[in-house]
Amino acid sequence: MVYPILAYGHRNLRKIAEDIDRNYPGLEDLIANMFETMYETSGVGLAAPQVNRQIRLFVVDASPFAEEDAAAKDFKRVFINARILEEYGEEKNFDEGCLSVPGIRGEVLRPSIIKMEYLDENFEKHTDEFSGMPARVIQHEYDHLEGILFVDHFSNLRKMRIKKKLTNISKGDVQVDYRMIFPKKKKR
Ligand code: NI
Q1: pLDDT band for position 5 (50/70/90)?
Q2: How many domains does the chain have?
Q3: Active site (catalytic) residues
């Protein structure tokens, strides 16, 4: 099942996501549906808050980046209750986009290496270091758990330049080829 994606401006994208345990209802289906939704929308990552679940879960498949980074080959993972412990290494720019912010892309500066603690889909605990494209995708998805969107990292000037576009997205005035949930219009 392909879920609709919450659009920029939806307040549920701004909440801090909460940890889950293995009894979280329908978790297996949720994960399968999140992968299906991600592939259907040509994403390389999808975080649960984007499908209106305020829980610390995201899925990643970085394999479209395999040509530019060998580490991305077959990098298909589920991350539950993730906590970034450290970020280090050279800060690098990379052109990012987001299913919740269609039609907008832009470079975001992030440290190139992260150390993260998380559970996989079997609730096995891991502490791993990631770099290259996997780190980049993880950092973007992890931000969603903290209520942060990639455009928040833009300079004030660039934020000003995209303000109108963002307003249009939040009003549902945007061309997009997948289903989205737009913020409720205010009653007059
Ligand atoms: Ni995103």
Answers
A1: very high
A2: 1
A3: 141
How many Å lie between the centroid of ligand 1 and the Cα of residue 187? 28
Average of pLDDT values for 136-151?
A: 98
Instruction: Determine contact, residues 149/99, Cβ cutoff 8 Å.
Output: no
Q: Cβ(60)–Cβ(67) under 8 Å?
A: no
Does 114 reside within a domain?
A: yes
Q: Are 178 and 3 in contact (CB under 8 A)?
A: no
Per the structure, the complete domain to which residue 123 belongs is given by: 5-181
The β-bridge relationship of strands 125-131 and 180-181 is unpaired
Ligand 1 center from residue 106 Cα (angstroms): 12
Distance 71 CA to ligand 1 centre (A): 21
pLDDT at 184 over 90: no
Residue 188 within a domain: no
